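call fold target=Heavy metal translocating P-type ATPase
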Amino acid sequence: MNATPFAGPQHAAPAGDSLAHLQPFGRALLSVEGMWCPSCAAATAQVLQRIPGILSAQVSFATSSVLLKWDPQVVDLEQARGRVERLGYRLLPAASTEQTLARIDRQVTRLGIRLAVGVLFGMWTMLCSLLLYIGGPELTTPPTGTWLAIAAGIAAVPVYIVAGLPVILAGWRTLRTGVPGMDTLVSLGTLAAIALSMWQLAEGDTEVYFDTSVMLILLLTTGRLIETITLRHAARAIGALQDMLPESAERLEPGGRYRQVPARSIRVGDQIRISAGQRASLDGEVVSGHSAVDCSALTGESRPRKVAPGDALEAGSTNLTSPLNVTVTAAVGQRHIDRIGVRMAEAAGRRGNTQRMADTLARFIVPVALALSATSLLISWFMGVATPDAILRAVTVLIIACPCAVSIAVPIAYVAAASRSADNGILFRDPAAMEAMAGIDTMVLDKTGTLTHGRPRVTRVQFHESHPQIASRSSLLNLVAQAEEGITHPLADALREAARESPSNAETTADSLSPVNEQTTKRYDRGVRMMDTQLGEVLVGSQGFLRDMGIHLLTAPEARPQEPAGSRVEVAVNGRWLATMFLADELRDDAADALKKLRHMGIHCSIASGDGREPVLDVARKLGLEEKDAHWECTPQGKADFVERLGAHRTGFAGDGINDGPALATANVGLAVSDATSTATAAANVVLAKGGVGAIPLAVQHARRAHSIMKQNLFFAVIYNLAGLSLAASGSISPVVAALAMAASSLSVIANASRLSLGQAYSQQPSPA
């Protein structure tokens, strides 16, 4: 991970909204206020990138933020702020996750209100226009026809003000910056339809096109609302990392006492205490104490790691056994977990969005439509066509050029497919996720918690001697559970769970286990010694612990070839070696079948895990993977780098932990399996709410079908536009026919998308690619 200083949400401005305190960093995550669509984001990025010294500007409409990199010696951030403000937006220090989510919620509310107002008044415009289209001479000729046309225009005014004005302003801004998109074209078509309608009324003609302009605005607003709702999750990706850390820590004060203080107030060099069972809030170096820490959330390593004075400890790790005194080496904002968040933001900013493809098409259509409109006007004049008719042809080109079908082609198909997929517990975040999922040819999977259960389980018990009171697996597990009661450690948790799940203890709960007298139990680094009134001395721990306690061990039993590589816990009673319990992180029941189906679909599979060599190779062998497809001891950045090296491939990454966040964001599509952490869920494009890794093949099948419909919709929309532009430019159709053709194109993509929800159920057996 690049440790370049980074200014994020933790670096709040000392006063007001000044950006001066961020100037030396050279890189910062900033908020952009005022954007309401992806075109706004594109325009903002274009303006920033034109400033000399700006190295990159990745603007996200979903989070209203920009990941900005600049040369501190060249760029003045206040100058950059001024450029953005002239565009109509505000550049501010990064907002908190809560503020960002609140802003998105307000945006959804505003879009909902605009759409509601548009529909309420627009339906009256449509009704009056319908009477003009299908009515007889008594309705279409003055004075009745004139009053109907005026009524259609009056009803459209609230639509123009409430829903249309933001579209027109956004279109003007993007046109000024040279990146016109959907808003620009819809604005031109709307204004042209209004102008032509006013011209017709002034000439005493009742053929008006207020309904066309209203339809343009409502269709675009609908697409924006769907997009904003589906992109809301992106704002939670970095915030979820901070949420899992404690907000305070125990800092050593000058008087020698520890005091609970906010983590943000602690500086490098301060000393803090991390109690047993507590999660570290800051990076540091252990100065006193010996303990075991669970780093699985950060590294994916399933076994706890022993730490001693001089060892590093990272925020997010859980101290399991004994208190630790730690000297802080990285404050809030510079921790390893903060840099993971930056990496996720950078990767998410690079990810494409399917809806942007529609904006690209619109940007191509804009100059073509304008050129055709002007050409049609000039040619008509040269051919002796009357000026009103020549203008009518030019305006017809603009009306039919508005790609409303393009704007809703992807969102409509996405909504239909996403609702159907949700019935199977497969949640696609946005249309881009479906497109990426449909095209993957390589799937990289985390091991711990994704392919395996993510926690050790007792796989086998082997007795070495008989004992009259401990003659069964259940009685042994009950004894061990009593000895381990109150101990915070993954292996202790597994032993207690095994006791509860033992067949003869089917009704046993954690509360029903016999209480342990703390005075008769003594804990050690590698085991526990319990004095039982009936059994005498009971020892539970590692082989080394039993040997240190004077227990003679014969040749240690080996795990069976078919058993996963894992840990062993030895048990001795009254100085005699009684039994060995084998514990391992077991493979999920559906993992092997899932990978078999993925390979059948033409998708290459591999493992990237933070765990050690043997456990990873053991899982790979059971899944039928070759050693070259197993990658172990991968750091969070290492996983992301591995995915990035597969750049020639379209890659998916499936994981469940904080350590998987950067890889989930870097891959073309990230999948969070069931029971994933909030960070993994926030960073992923696809969430498998049920079924775990076994649902991945079905998710691919859903995505491939949905993407096929999306491509068909875009194809239909583009063909409609090209054909309509040609006919309009030649004067073969009137504005009324152009409006009807535009409506027909939108209806065609809606009908095609409905096949995703009305067709036959998806097959549970994925077909090959």
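return ok
Confidence is low (pLDDT under 50) at residues 1-16, 346-354, 506-519, 759-769. Residues 97-134 form the longest helix (38 residues).
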